[in-house]
Amino acid sequence: MNAETQQRILDAVDAGFEAQLATTRDFVAIPSTRGAEGPCQDMIGDLLRERGYEVDDWHINVDDLKDLRGFGPIEHDFSKARSVVGTYRPQTNAGKSLILQGHCDVVPAGPLELWDTPPFSPVIKDGKMFGRGACDMKSGTIGALHALDAIKAAGFKPTARIHFQSVIEEESTGVGALSTLQRGYRADACFIPEPTSGKMVRSQVGVIWFRLRVKGHPTHVAFAGSGANAIMAAYHLIQAVQKLEIEWNERAKADRHFKTLNHPINFNPGIIKGGDWASSVPAWCDVDCRIAILPGWSVADHQKEIAACVAAAARNHRFLANNPPEIEWSGFLSDGYELTDAAAPEAAFAKAFDKVYGGAVEDLVFTALTDTRFYGLNYGIPSLCFGASGGEMHGFNEFVDLDSLKKSTKAMALFIAEWCGVEKV
């Protein structure tokens, strides 16, 4: 791809950026929390049809996925769960095929009064767009769509097959991405524009979700000593898993990528529910937890370690020793992933990055996870993850930096043109 073609594509991104932001605002405005992603999928389907893509929009059947590597249990109503894929088929096959994927599900906003502006009424100020999902990762998804638009607006069309995929469940199980692979979508490479602050994810953690279900013995609080407090017992188990977290972080010091980080394994008790009455010793407590594992660590083996840790802690507790807690696997059962065997797509992206940013792209050792794992681990498809800068993901006042979004869109457009090839319209 010559310099003139590159510049025409870059200029087209600039020319279309206001339209890109308008589409991003509309996308962020949809409160697509878990189980409510349908309107976002409708919007993506419409955007793809308007552009002439061949659209596949289907309901996800969990039974088709449950035996695949990386499947996580679904506990909520999944009857309306859908994946949407738009396919571009070239007139001339000369380049390499590509999957472009984004997830439209977002995490809950939390107490609305703690946001400076409403989370689903996106606002642009000080060079940033604020709103739930603006950073993670709706701006990246729309950026990928407008990267394709820029290629067309510059007078070119790709010369390879492209699947533009909008998935759900990235924040809790990953079965949306898994469903596209079960459906049969494949390519020579995958690119996921998660917010990475302009760095390429080199290695990322896997995640295990589990629920501690603790029973107590209720009494009137006036006689608390004769009962057993399930909430306090759950805290005893949390402390035990915190010690396991320390052990796993010691092991992480042997990992070639994660040894550079101080504390890559993070354990989080994220949801707690328990008890029925402030003056009754609580009879039950459920704690939903998340803990990370590193690439190459077995999910099954580390599930066993969690179970053994909880069982040992229960044996050392007056009440739990005879009333052991239960563990439920409540979502992610995900392997870590290291980007390997990706020399060709990385070389293509390196050219795009150098043109837009100058120099070489930095690696990111990522203490969260992305859907890239399914492509690399399950099917040997090299899966790149790169995107814009932002902040407060999963927190209040989430935002994406707009200058970084424009740059990442330009890098995506040039990468698509380099990897897939282009010809004049």
UniProtKB/TrEMBL annotation:
Pfam families: M20_dimer (PF07687), Peptidase_M20 (PF01546). SUPFAM superfamilies: Bacterial exopeptidase dimerisation domain, Zn-dependent exopeptidases. One of its GO terms (molecular function) is hydrolase activity. Keywords: Cobalt, Hydrolase, Metal-binding, Zinc. InterPro entries: ArgE/DapE, Bact_exopeptidase_dim_dom, Peptidase_M20, Peptidase_M20_dimer, Peptidase_M20A, YodQ-like. Its cofactor is Co(2+); Zn(2+). Residues 204-316 form the Peptidase M20 dimerisation domain. It comes from the Bacteria. Belongs to the peptidase M20A family. This is Peptidase M20 family protein. The lineage of its organism: Bacteria, Pseudomonadati, Pseudomonadota, Alphaproteobacteria, Hyphomicrobiales.
